[in-house]
């Protein structure tokens, strides 16, 4: 606001009563290249404070007034939101900005912004516009082929400094990898193409290997630098590759991953597949056997390269555990567990959830933001609550353990109590019990990650469908009204919020499966259990972004505590029974697996 730009490290100079006078980014110690140094700035302000204090106080008051105005921008309400116009407008803007050659949006730098891909997949699902799906596929393929993806150790870097996705900022963030895993999983559901699920599994290989703590929480990031050089850990020379793989395999590997003597990054090489083609003299890849053999060879080489790279000095690991980012990872792992049927992912999500409730929830139930070295600190922000609730909702729809839904609802009620602006609507960044700063901002912009307000809004709607809490539907409607002017002005910057609007305004399905609990079924007849699992598998086969599902057995009474309406659903002919409802209006109950699939 003061000088038209921002960044890190940020310097703010304040009066003794914490009123800002001056702010700026990255000042050198002394004057340098025409830039005022820190010594000059603080000396100048020191002199002014002694000789013209009133001028500085007036300046601080103007800054505070500007901050208040900035926080209020876009919060005016419109009488009506034309959602169809907004959805199509954002889609058109994404089409115009799409890079047809390499995927992604804009030129450089390029950020993954997975929620843009989520929005496009839902747009494709609703409007059957193949361009939306094509943009998603092109982007996911482009990122996987680029240097932004670590093809040796897996995982994605934070962003690409160039249009091709070749040269990343080598820092690896937990949030990027978790959100991207969801994008690849949803694309797999939409297309049934296993290459997308394979990338998701590679991401989880990285997270579960390098970012998990012994207690089950997930670390925040890995640095870009090692030994004082950005990317040194990840880059290669031809000589190194040949040394590791031998002359024949080394040269073939270099050709495959664009590793040359001239290099593609500071005289070294970032392995990538951007321009990869299959030499004519090599095996025909369209033949299944040849491709299978090629994959075995590639994996053997990759493992050797990985083992060698592990002997290098590793980048620094940011080993704090954040509630917010763990919530995103719980969501991603839970989705993967149910879509891919891999219990390891579900168990990792549950372990992370247990860690948070053991280490990051106070005895009074207040969620905290950060854990490190045995210490938990800082009252949780709106993102911590919203993202963790998202994770618990996904964990419920994967395990159908009612405790996860119960915890999600409890945290959601706490979020409303602590963060909701009862006067003007929306959710503040920090709670009523937090340190009172010069302003209480409300973030709605979906930038590198979705905003807490956006995620919370979709949470409200899903929890309302899952528990029958219609007051949460009203909370979501209030969110749309509060941010309607902002949404109308810059809808492209709020694609996750638009996903919530889609969920609110388009037909949704609620699926209730009623079955016996196998642990209390004296007949030892497992058919009911098998049928419920088969029905759940059918739900998870397809991309169903506007569906919520529940499994209820009379022996699991916890679910009826948070969703009392479930007791009204009965089994038919003592068989596993499914009710498929649209906006709470249900079809007749079905017990046949074939009929269930047909109705879906």
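Q: What amino acid sequence fits the structure above?
A:
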């Amino acid at each position: 606001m003061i000088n038209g730009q921002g960044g890190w490290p940020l310097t703010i100079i304040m009066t003794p009563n914490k009123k800002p006078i001056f702010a700026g980014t990255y000042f050198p110690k002394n004057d340098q290249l025409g830039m005022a140094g820190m010594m000059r700035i603080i000396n100048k302000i020191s002199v002014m404070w002694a000789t013209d204090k009133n001028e500085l106080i007036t300046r601080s008051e103007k800054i505070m007034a500007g901050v208040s105005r900035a926080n209020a921008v876009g919060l005016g309400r419109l009488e009506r939101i034309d959602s169809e116009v907004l959805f199509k407008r954002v889609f058109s803007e994404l089409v115009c900005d799409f890079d047809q050659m390499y995927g992604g949006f804009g030129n450089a730098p390029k950020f993954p912004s997975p929620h843009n891909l989520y929005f496009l997949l839902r747009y494709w699902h609703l409007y059957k516009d193949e361009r939306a799906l094509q943009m998603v596929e092109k982007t996911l393929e482009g990122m996987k082929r680029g240097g932004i993806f670590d093809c040796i150790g897996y995982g994605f870097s934070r962003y690409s400094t160039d249009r091709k996705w070749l040269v990343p900022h080598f820092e690896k963030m937990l949030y990027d990898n978790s959100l991207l895993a969801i994008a690849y999983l949803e694309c797999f559901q939409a297309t049934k193409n296993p290459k997308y699920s394979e990338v998701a599994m590679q991401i989880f290989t990285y997270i579960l290997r390098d970012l998990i703590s012994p207690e089950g929480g997930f670390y925040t990031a890995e640095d870009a630098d090692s030994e004082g050089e950005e990317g040194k850990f990840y880059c290669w020379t031809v000589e190194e590759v040949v040394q590791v793989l031998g002359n024949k395999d080394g040269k073939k590997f270099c050709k495959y991953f664009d590793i040359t003597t001239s290099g593609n990054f500071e005289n070294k090489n970032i392995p990538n597949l951007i321009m990869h083609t299959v030499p004519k003299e090599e095996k025909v890849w369209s033949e299944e056997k040849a491709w299978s053999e090629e994959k075995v060879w590639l994996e053997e080489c990759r493992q050797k390269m990985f083992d060698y790279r592990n002997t290098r000095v590793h980048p620094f690991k940011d080993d704090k555990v954040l509630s917010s980012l763990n919530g995103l990872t719980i969501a991603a792992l839970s989705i993967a567990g149910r879509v891919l049927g891999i219990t390891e992912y579900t168990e990792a999500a549950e372990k992370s959830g247990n860690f948070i409730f053991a280490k990051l929830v106070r005895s009074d139930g207040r969620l905290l933001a950060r854990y490190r070295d045995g210490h938990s600190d800082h009252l949780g922000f709106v993102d911590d609550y919203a993202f963790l609730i998202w994770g618990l909702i996904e964990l419920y729809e994967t395990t159908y353990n009612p405790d996860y839904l119960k915890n999600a609802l409890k945290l959601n009620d706490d979020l409303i109590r602590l963060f909701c602006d009862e006067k003007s609507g929306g959710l503040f960044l920090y709670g009523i019990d937090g340190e009172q700063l010069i302003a209480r901002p409300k973030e709605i912009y979906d930038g590198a990650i979705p905003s807490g307000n956006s995620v919370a809004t979709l949470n409200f709607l899903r929890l309302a469908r899952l528990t029958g809490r219609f007051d949460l539907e009203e909370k979501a409607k209030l969110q749309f009204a509060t941010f309607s002017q902002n949404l109308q002005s810059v809808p492209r910057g709020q694609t996750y919020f638009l996903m919530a609007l889609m969920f609110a305004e388009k037909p949704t399905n609620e699926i209730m499966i009623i079955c016996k609990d196998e642990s209390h079924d004296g007949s030892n007849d497992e058919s009911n259990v098998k049928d419920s699992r088969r029905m759940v598998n059918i739900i998870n086969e397809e991309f169903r972004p506007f569906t919520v599902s529940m499994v209820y057995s009379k022996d699991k009474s916890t679910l009826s505590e948070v969703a009392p309406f479930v007791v009204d659903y009965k089994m038919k002919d003592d068989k596993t029974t499914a009710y498929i409802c649209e906006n709470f209006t249900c079809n007749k109950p079905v017990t046949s697996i074939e009929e269930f699939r047909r109705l879906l």
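Q: And what stands out in the fold?
A: The first strand starts at residue 10 and ends at 14.
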